Structures are given as structure tokens and as C-alpha cells.
């Protein structure tokens, strides 16, 4: 995950990271709730696209909080 955060830090400004995070949240909201997605992740029930969205969301939130 740290590699992804470093990559995002090089590619995105803070404002762009927030916009990207909002876009990822919007994509998640279009299909389900974030909490439901995280519960399914814990049970190993996500496909590659869903897992990538959660990974990106976590990396973006870490970047914004950093």
C-alpha cells in the first residue's frame, strides 16, 4: 500500500486526490454501500475491480490524511 500512496503523492495534488477519492466513493455508492463492500472484502467475496476500488480508496484517504 505504501508504494501506491507514494505513487499517488507524485501524481496528484491534494485537491486532485480529494476529487479522485470522491469519484471512487461515487462509483462504490452506485453499486452498494462502502460498509457492505468492506464486509464482503473481509469475507473474501470481492472481485478484482471491487478490491482495486477499495485499495485506491484507502490509499487516497491515507494520502489526504498525510
Could you explain how this protein is built, in words?
The protein has one domain. The protein is an all-alpha fold. The protein has helices spanning 2-11, 14-31, 34-42, 48-65. Helix 1 (2-11) crosses helix 4 (48-65) and helix 2 runs antiparallel to helix 4 (48-65).
How many discrete domains? 1
Based on the structure, what is the oligomeric state of the protein chains?
single chain
What's the alpha carbon Rg, rounded to whole Å? 12 Å
- First CA to last CA: what distance? 14 Å
pLDDT below 50 for ≥5 consecutive residues: which ranges? none
**Shape, please?**
globular
Number of helices: 4
Total strand segments = 0
Average predicted confidence as pLDDT:
86
The class by helix and strand makeup works out as mainly alpha
**Strand composition percent:** under 5%
State the helicity in percent bands.
over 70%
In N-to-C order, the SSE pattern is HHHH
Largest sheet: none
What brief labels describe this structure?
66 residues; 4 helices; globular; mainly alpha
Summed up:
By secondary structure, this protein is an all-alpha fold. The protein contains 4 helices and no strands.
Amino acid at each position: 500500500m505504501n508504494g501506491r500512496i507514494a505513487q499517488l503523492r507524485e501524481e496528484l495534488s491534494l485537491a486532485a486526490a480529494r476529487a479522485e477519492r470522491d469519484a471512487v466513493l461515487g462509483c462504490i455508492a452506485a453499486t452498494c454501500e462502502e460498509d457492505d463492500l468492506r464486509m464482503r472484502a473481509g469475507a473474501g467475496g470481492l472481485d478484482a475491480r471491487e478490491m482495486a476500488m477499495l485499495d485506491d480508496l484507502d490509499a487516497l484517504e491515507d494520502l489526504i490524511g498525510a
